[in-house]
Design goal:
The complex is a heterodimer of chains A (about 140) and B (about 210). Chain A has about 140 residues and is of the alpha+beta class. Chain A is about 15% helix and about 50% strand. Chain B is an alpha+beta fold. The chains are: A alpha+beta (about 140), B alpha+beta (about 210). At the A-B interface, strand 1 and strand 6 of A face strand 8 of B.
Chain lengths: ~140, ~210
């Protein structure tokens, strides 16, 4: 009986450790997240050839003008103003920044109020069954 | 006019040769019958199809493949295999720069047949289905992509030793193969789906096979 108890406790501990290890897994196997959108101007016309930086490494030390320290991808919007960034799906830490290059700034809806900034915080929590986070039309303005 | 004793010598030689030949046939038949186990180790180079995720993203190193084949007499055989291969990750727009290297692990089953074309040479076509994993990083930051594979190949074997009954035979193997890969469970946007999920490969390998009778 004593042996049975020790064996059961050992098994419970082992399963707990395995569950913990699985829960700590950073990436989701066989899954990619995709962030898509269209950059448009104030008239709603697409802006082609606009440089965008997709990153997780953003520096807010200059609060008025935050900048990316490094880039995961740096790409230009296509002729239709579209962009698409793909990354392996993550369990946690699935936040990214989309930085727009000067002279443009993004007009962001911040709790119903328009806010002008050079970046957009995006995450994959609202992705569809294909792993796509559709950001829709993002308005870029020249201040 | 040949001396009469020469006829006896010819007759004796004929009997000996006939007996020896029958023994050889018997040995050959004996050797070709029964259960055979054929383990092998091959060094593999594979090249994935360009314009696909696997072909564009990974720079493959030399890999290995261990096979354990079984056959009865001269019937087609069945085998199982495991393989491994390293790769460098090239700049790409899918893995976000999270990984610099990857490990390919594959395993599967195959059917094959050995057609002798001489005393030492045989042709060995095969067809197999299997599973391949592309493993990036290590726990807890491991990221795995799974593919199903089907492949066919044509191998040539050359016997370098053995052949006596009860002895082990050793064969050099040279093989070329073609395979298809499908990652049907990979979740990705529809625009990139076929690019990431589908690929094909050409492979070449050299190795050594042992036949145990």
């Amino acid at each position: 009986m004593k042996y049975f108890k020790q064996d059961s406790i050992a098994k419970i501990l082992l399963f707990s450790l395995l569950a913990f290890a699985m829960g700590c897994k950073e990436f989701i196997d066989d899954s990619f997240d995709t962030f898509t959108g269209v950059i448009v101007d104030e008239e709603g016309q697409p802006i082609p050839g606009l440089e965008l930086i997709f990153t997780q490494d953003f520096n807010f030390s200059d609060f008025q003008n935050p900048k990316s320290n490094s880039s995961i991808y740096t790409e230009l919007t296509n002729d239709l103003g579209e962009f698409r960034f793909v990354a392996p799906s993550r369990q946690l830490d699935n936040f990214y920044y989309l930085e727009i290059q000067s002279p443009y700034l993004l007009e962001i809806d911040f709790f119903g109020e328009p806010q002008i900034q050079n970046y957009l915080l995006i995450n994959s929590s609202e992705k569809d069954e294909n792993g796509v986070v559709a950001l829709g039309f993002l308005k870029a303005i020249k201040p | 006019m040949r001396p009469p004793y020469l006829w006896f010598v010819f007759l004796f030689c004929g009997i000996i040769q006939s007996t020896f030949a029958q023994d050889q046939i018997a040995v050959k038949e004996k050797k070709s019958e029964g259960f055979k186990v054929e383990p092998s180790l091959e060094f593999v180079y594979r090249d994935f199809q360009n314009q696909t995720f696997l072909g564009d993203v990974y720079q493959m190193d030399l890999g290995y493949r261990l096979k354990l084949n079984f056959r009865y007499s001269n019937y087609p055989g069945i085998g199982i295999y495991v393989g491994g291969q390293g790769a460098n990750v090239k700049e790409n727009r899918f893995l976000a720069g999270f990984f610099k290297e990857a490990r390919f692990r594959d395993h599967g089953i195959l059917i094959y047949h050995k057609f002798p074309v001489g005393k030492k040479i045989a042709i060995m076509p095969d067809f197999g289905v299997g599973w391949m994993q592309v493993i990036h990083g290590n726990n807890p930051s491991k990221y795995v992509l799974n593919y199903n594979s089907y492949s066919g190949g044509l191998g040539f074997t050359y016997k370098v030793f053995g052949g006596e009954p009860g002895l082990i035979e050793g064969h050099l193997i040279l093989r070329a193969g073609y395979g298809g890969l499908r990652g049907k469970d990979i979740i990705i946007n529809p625009s990139d789906r076929s690019y990431v999920r589908e690929s094909s490969e050409l492979s070449g390998s050299v190795g050594f096979q042992i036949t145990l009778h």
